[in-house]
Design goal:
Chain lengths: 330, 437, 283
């Protein structure tokens, strides 16, 4: 009601309204008056919220419900089994193996990809001839779809194929393995493919972060007698911290949802030695026509991702993102 | 101003794209419209999902389409070949959408029974009764509760395909008739530096053939029938079969890297290995020569290929002449226009097309007994004779059982091939999956 | 340091550092090789015949062997879906970010958190539930069935990136607009959005690329090949035409080109956006 009166007053005397508006605004910051706000808010927020709720939040709730049934996907939901599916999933050694595979990929990313990206970014952090071309080339695999990458590497990793021939050419013929057929190494082969695809992204991200490390700081430290390694360790790396933490976050989320590359190259085989949580879900939900079971898997995966991400946000990213929200971006 | 125009332009583009999407999805459905079988008078187009991604079978299908179209100008059929392994994932998805294909590949058995639950398979009993009589007992594999939901176009038996030249090279004069003889031959081949048996373990179902056959050898015919009906493997003979498999695998008869070898995709597949002379034997269905011919440039290989049935197992309780088999057929979905659909499927069973299928495309045995004389490969005539004298033909278990049980079986056997699990674990997996029915 | 007369040797030019320079170039070359060789392998492979490939996988091409098959259809589908998903994500996301950045209302941070949660939730994991949902509302085998979920999953990072940008627009601009008699809508459309253009470009590119490269959801949703997107087409082509290795190479190579071309054109924006992302979270 007060909004209407104010609006009426504004119509009657525009300048007075503006003055009063700015006066109230100044005490509260750059925010509009409460009048008409609700309608506008609804108009602005609802579409996004609706789309998001319907396609992101709702499916999980629906899946939680379906998980309580045995369902082949055909016909109506008739076979209520309570939490049986959830228990089956958690008891299934193949599921636990799949989770382990995701964890292995995540840990390997941390232990191999991160230092590698860092080292490469540090080495490349200078003005070089053909720097743009280099950045283009390094980043290119990231732009390819995972599906294309998978087909690409599938072609190269055939027994007697390109990779094998390359090994022979550099004298490493005795090291040739059954890249995709040996259960003990297939997961690591896939990790190499994933690394090929994403290392460029890591390098570029870290390079961008390195731009934010003031040269003056490094120079000052150098003048004070610090060796290049000390400069890197004491100054560059800490300042790079937020970027690194973002990389870790993105990498972990990516590791959790790994599917395309695995599915196209090995379908999680041989004998589940390269299965991931999502391939497990698709394999057991779709191909076996057990959508109740598959839904239970989806819910469990969601919980795992959610818990991880929440914990990570809380402990690792909090101080970084807090700054992001209030800073003015240059 | 500029920004408003840009915003507006984006909105217009988005709306246009949305409209385009809506329209394209509407027109992508079968032009027969919705609803059950109904007679249409205008031209109709049917989508036909089959697994003939390669010649010669693909060519035979295409000529069948044009011949049928010449005789029925109002009926157009779109050939949509899909790789066999993709079928297993795509078919359930398709049957759940509102837009399934009109005709799709159907292997019958418990798998068909599972699909019927979707309500999208057409009951064609009344439309093809005379054809079914003509086809004889084979058609029963595509019936559920006495109702016909699919029409077979070929039949298959599974046995060992082998390279006569490689056998000769290893000093093997005749193909083995008993399991000990097979094991001895495996040793001879290894001594000659030849991969004895190729198996496409990556695709899992080829592994299951071994377990299936050991079950067929160990179990009496009555037990086999009961097991399928009860959707269980909880009988002592199945455990024995698992152990027989274990002993067989201990002889390490397979090619290097068999866990990653696909069955039919590429020259490195198990079929490709035999076709190119890199392996001596493969336990496969009688469609294999057709598959092999697409994977090799060696046109002579047809004369180099022979066939022998799965050897008998000494001391086993089952019948030594029982065969593992199945067949291919097609089903019409409820949205398919009739009688165009059943007419086409009946046409595929006509003597003319059947003869082409078995002679040019080497699909296997004809569903229509009248075309038996057209079998060109001596091996196939051998198979036909054997199938007619067999004591029993067991449908491959992953088809005989409902889909999720069949998948569980394939997975368990494949895991076992990779060194995981136990022979009894296979039986348990089947029963656990059956409980989730 | 301003005004100092002592010449400070710049870090990069100190003699002590020289050894790393050739090392850098060497590293760059190695990285270039590792990155580009596989792609070249596929592109060149498309120029050879299958027999040649089977006999010598690492050889150089001979006559051009190529069949386009369904490539252009897949390309068109990918483009259409990506445009819809991006337009929806960025359009709705910008509106929501505007509300969340320049309005004050109860539970505002709560609503923001709701969107932020989506960031923690990988799209692939939701694919099976989304599939079941689409089945219910009859959107299977429909491009919208892919575009809408993709837009929804792109909303979180869109809003998270746009909000600080919009927040940073000075309040004085707003006041000035009010003085000129502009409504909030006009302010949004004519002042805020143009000023947010760098961020808008970044999120558009991110949403577009995410949609373009998606595989699992299209795989589940599309049954008729006429609807396939490019990643799906590549994977399907590979299995359908397995014996025609040369065609697979050609198809795969072709499917890489749009992404690479797009990247070359937009690389400044992409890298710039990443810089912004990295910069926005500096401690």
């Amino acid at each position: 009601m007060s909004g209407l009166t104010r609006a009426a007053a504004a119509v009657a005397d525009p300048t007075a309204a503006v003055v009063s508006a700015t006066r109230t605004e100044k005490t509260r910051g750059p925010f509009w008056r409460p009048s008409r706000k609700l309608i506008e808010l609804v108009v602005l927020l609802t579409p996004a919220l609706a789309l998001f709720t319907f396609f992101v939040l709702l499916p999980i709730c629906v899946a939680a419900y379906y998980g309580l049934f045995n369902w082949s996907g055909y016909g109506a939901l008739s076979d209520f089994v309570g939490l049986h599916n959830y228990r089956l999933v958690l008891d299934d050694p193949v599921f636990r193996e799949s989770v382990l595979h995701n964890v292995i990929i995540a840990v390997l990313s941390l232990v191999i990809q991160l230092p590698l990206s860092l080292a490469l970014a540090l080495l490349l952090n200078r003005r070089m001839k053909g720097g743009t071309l280099l950045r283009l080339a390094v980043f290119a695999p990231y732009v390819l779809s995972e599906a294309t990458t998978a087909v690409l590497w599938l072609l190269m990793l055939q027994p007697g194929g390109f990779v094998d021939q390359l090994f022979k050419a550099v004298g490493l013929g005795h090291e040739i393995k059954l890249w995709l057929a040996d259960p003990s190494i297939v997961l690591y082969t896939l990790f190499v493919v994933v690394t090929w695809k994403y290392i460029g992204f890591g390098i570029i991200l870290l390079l961008a972060g390195l731009q934010g490390v003031p040269v003056e700081l490094r120079e000052a430290a150098a003048i004070d007698g610090a060796s290049p390694w000390q400069v890197t360790r004491r100054i560059t790396l800490p300042l790079l911290g937020p970027t690194i933490r973002i990389w870790i976050f993105l990498s972990m989320i990516g590791s959790l949802q790994l599917f395309d590359i695995v599915w196209i190259m090995t379908i999680g085989g041989p004998a589940n030695s390269s299965s991931t949580m999502v391939t497990y879900m698709i394999e057991n939900g779709f191909r076996s026509l057990e959508f109740g079971f598959g839904s239970a898997v989806a819910v469990i995966l969601f919980i795992i991702s959610f818990v991880f991400a929440l914990l990570y946000q809380r402990f690792a990213l909090r101080r970084d993102t807090a700054g992001a929200l209030t800073r003015a971006v240059g | 101003m500029r920004s408003t125009r840009k915003y507006a332009a984006v909105t217009v583009a988005a709306v246009a794209a949305l409209a385009l999407a809506a329209c394209s999805s509407g027109s992508s459905g079968p032009s027969s419209g919705s609803g059950g079988s109904h007679k249409t008078s205008g031209p109709v187009t049917l989508t036909w999902w089959n697994n003939a991604t390669a010649n010669p079978l693909k060519g035979v299908y295409l000529s069948a389409i044009s011949a049928f179209h010449a005789a029925n100008p109002k009926v157009n059929i779109t050939d949509v070949p899909i790789q066999n392994e993709q079928f297993l994932t795509k078919m359930p998805l398709a049957l759940q959408s509102s837009n399934p294909p009109d005709i799709f590949q159907q292997w019958g058995g418990g798998q068909e029974a599972t699909q019927i639950k979707s309500g999208k398979l057409q009951n064609v009993t009344n439309m093809v009764s005379s054809l079914i009589t003509q086809l004889g007992p084979a058609a029963a594999g595509w019936q559920v509760n006495g109702q016909q939901y699919g029409i077979p176009y070929d039949l298959h038996m599974v046995g060992f395909w082998y390279r006569k030249d490689l056998f000769a090279k290893a000093g093997i004069k005749t193909p083995p008739a008993t399991l000990p003889e097979l094991n001895a031959d495996v040793t001879k081949l290894k001594a000659a530096g030849i991969a004895p048996i190729a198996v496409g373990s990556k695709d899992r179902w080829p592994d299951a053939f071994y377990w299936d056959y050991f079950a067929v050898r160990e179990c009496s015919i009555a037990t086999l029938k009961t097991a399928v009906k009860a959707i269980s493997a909880n009988y002592p003979c199945f455990a024995k079969a698992g152990n027989a498999l274990k002993t067989f695998m201990a002889t390490k008869p397979f090619q290097v890297g068999f866990l990653g070898t696909p069955a039919q995709v590429g020259a490195g597949s198990s079929a490709g290995l035999v076709a190119n002379g890199k392996a001596a034997m493969e336990l496969q269905g009688d469609w294999d020569p057709g598959v092999m011919s697409a994977l090799t440039s060696n046109k002579k290989f047809v004369s180099q290929i022979g066939w022998f049935p799965f050897p008998s197992v000494p001391g086993a309780a089952g019948s030594p002449t029982a065969l593992l088999g199945g067949g291919d057929g097609f089903s019409c979905t409820t949205t398919a226009p009739e009688p165009a659909c059943v007419n086409f499927l009946s046409y595929l069973d006509s003597a003319a097309v059947q003869e082409k299928l078995v002679s040019t495309a080497d699909v296997g045995l004809p569903a229509n007994p009248a075309a038996a004389s057209a079998l060109s490969l001596p091996a196939e005539r051998q198979i036909l004779a054997l199938s007619q004298s067999a004591s029993y033909v067991q449908n491959y278990f992953d088809i005989a059982y409902p889909t999720n049980v069949g998948q569980a079986l394939d997975n368990a056997v494949a895991d076992y091939f990779a060194g995981q699990g136990t022979p009894t674990g296979i039986v348990t997996a089947i029963d656990q999956a059956a409980a989730r029915q | 340091m301003a005004g100092a007369t002592v010449t400070v040797p710049s870090y990069g030019r100190r003699r002590r550092i020289k050894p790393t320079v050739p090392l850098s170039y060497l590293t760059a070359l190695v990285i270039l090789a590792i990155t580009l060789v596989p792609m070249l392998f596929v592109i060149l492979g498309g120029f050879r015949t299958t027999a040649q490939i089977n006999s010598s996988p690492t050889g150089l091409p001979h006559p051009w062997v190529w069949s386009t098959a369904s490539f252009w259809e897949n390309l068109g589908n990918s483009a259409m879906i990506a445009v819809i998903a991006t337009a929806l994500a960025v359009g709705l996301g910008a509106m929501a970010a505007f509300a969340l950045s320049r309005y004050d209302f109860r539970f505002r941070e709560g609503w923001y958190l709701v969107f932020a949660i989506g960031l923690l939730f990988p799209a692939n994991v939701a694919s099976l539930p989304i599939y079941l949902l689409l089945k219910h509302i009859n959107l299977l085998d429909n491009p919208l069935g892919v575009a809408l979920p993709e837009a929804a999953f792109s909303l979180p990072f869109t809003i998270i990136i746009l909000r600080p940008f919009m927040r940073a627009i000075p309040g004085e601009l707003q006041d000035a607009a009010v003085v000129d008699g502009a409504s909030r809508l006009t302010f949004f459309l004519r002042i805020l959005l143009p000023l947010s253009r760098p961020a808008l470009m970044t999120v558009s590119i991110l949403a577009f690329v995410t949609s373009w490269n998606a595989y699992l959801l299209p795989f589940l949703v599309f049954t008729s090949e006429g609807h396939f997107t490019l990643p799906l087409g590549v994977a399907t082509f590979q299995s359908t035409y397995s014996q025609n290795t040369a065609s697979i190479f050609a198809f795969t190579a072709l499917s890489m080109l749009p992404a690479l071309a797009f990247f070359v054109l937009a690389q400044r924006r992409i890298v710039g956006g990443l810089s912004g992302l990295a910069g926005s979270v500096k401690g």
